[in-house]
């Protein structure tokens, strides 16, 4: 075997032994799906009566919001090897609403629940070389939260509460996550996203002719673990 042939064969052997790198590159489109868990931390104002014969009365107390798990989806377009634009959405979370420590004993209970979605658009940054299989990332963006589908719990309905709703709101979002490439296109993904927003809860008691409200600052964490696929 001549030297050029030997060198060529050796180079080919080395190339076959080197594992292929599957990291993200400019132009990639990445979809991720998984289980998304919502953890809400709220700071609410005292509960006031804002309509009816008792309008202006401060009932004190506070409101709380429960957690839920749903399906999550993200879609990312890589503008460069390191920067991408990502959109995130989930199926609607069903979050429980409760009032605590108010001066109106009939309202100190689990009131009901609301559906909630918080689609988010973020700029994401991948700091490592695009050829690596492990790709951590961080991002920041804006989120719009919609509340809908209010339901009143049976006990609250027995006390004549009949309508629960919350105002929609904008907020900011930040996230950390990573992809680990399993094949050239398939990846394992884990991410945690923080969304900061505010809303006003409204609870109506038509029989008493009053409506109560509470302003709530919500800091929500959405954690998601799942799989991704890039095109």
TrEMBL record:
Gene3D superfamilies for the chain: 2.40.160.20
Keywords per UniProt: Signal
GO CC entries: outer membrane
Pfam families membership: OmpW
Coiled-coil residues: none
Annotated signal sequence range: 1-23
InterPro entries, sorted: OMP/PagP_B-barrel, OMPW
GO biological process: transmembrane transport
Protein name in the entry: OmpW family protein
Species in which this protein is naturally found: uncultured Alphaproteobacteria bacterium
């Amino acid at each position: 075997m001549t030297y050029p042939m030997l060198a060529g064969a050796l180079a080919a052997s080395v190339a076959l032994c080197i594992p292929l790198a599957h990291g993200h590159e400019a132009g990639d489109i990445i979809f991720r799906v998984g289980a998304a868990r919502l953890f809400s931390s709220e700071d609410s104002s005292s509960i006031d009566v804002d309509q009816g014969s008792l309008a202006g009365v401060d009932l004190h107390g506070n409101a709380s919001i429960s957690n839920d798990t749903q399906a999550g989806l993200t879609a990312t377009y890589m503008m460069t090897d390191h920067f991408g634009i990502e959109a995130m959405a989930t199926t609607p979370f069903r979050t429980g609403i409760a009032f605590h420590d108010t001066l109106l004993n009939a309202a100190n209970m689990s009131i009901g629940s609301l559906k909630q979605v918080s689609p988010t658009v973020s700029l994401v940054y991948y700091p490592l070389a695009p050829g690596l299989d492990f790709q951590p990332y961080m991002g920041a963006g804006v989120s719009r939260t919609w509340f809908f589908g209010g339901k009143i719990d049976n006990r609250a309905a027995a006390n004549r509460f009949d309508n629960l709703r919350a105002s929609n709101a904008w907020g900011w979002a930040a996230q950390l996550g990573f992809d680990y490439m399993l094949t050239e296109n398939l990846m394992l993904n884990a991410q945690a996203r923080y969304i900061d927003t505010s809303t006003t809860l409204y609870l109506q008691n038509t029989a008493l002719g009053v409506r109560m409200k509470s302003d709530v600052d919500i800091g929500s964490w959405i954690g998601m673990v799942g799989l991704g696929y890039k095109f």
